[in-house]
């Protein structure tokens, strides 16, 4: 088991989602931009390329300062193979609903793994 010191620097929540979700989470204080302009969020709209979402997902899941990655489920659907393949404990990956797209538990990669563990 890894020691606590490995995870102590993970202090940020990264978010990939639509404008309403990102705005709400930024207003809640989750946003961070470091001195080099590196953000911990990505606003996705209909013009956002899938490659941009994929690269943000890869960056956020590899960063050592991020503890949780929140992603709107409808955005996760655009990169579903990457999301389903992700199995690391940190940063934790959570799919969340958006204002216009309700949450569907049958699509959630974490719940799929839990069901598989319990043989359902």
From TrEMBL:
It is found in: Vacuole membrane. GO terms for molecular function: proton-transporting ATPase activity, rotational mechanism. InterPro entries: ATPase_V1-cplx_f_g_su, ATPase_V1-cplx_fsu_euk, ATPase_V1_fsu_sf. GO terms for cellular component: fungal-type vacuole membrane; proton-transporting V-type ATPase, V1 domain. It is a peripheral membrane protein. Coiled coil: none annotated. The keyword Metal-binding does not apply. This is V-type proton ATPase subunit F. It comes from Leucosporidium creatinivorum. The lineage of its organism: Eukaryota, Fungi, Dikarya, Basidiomycota, Pucciniomycotina.
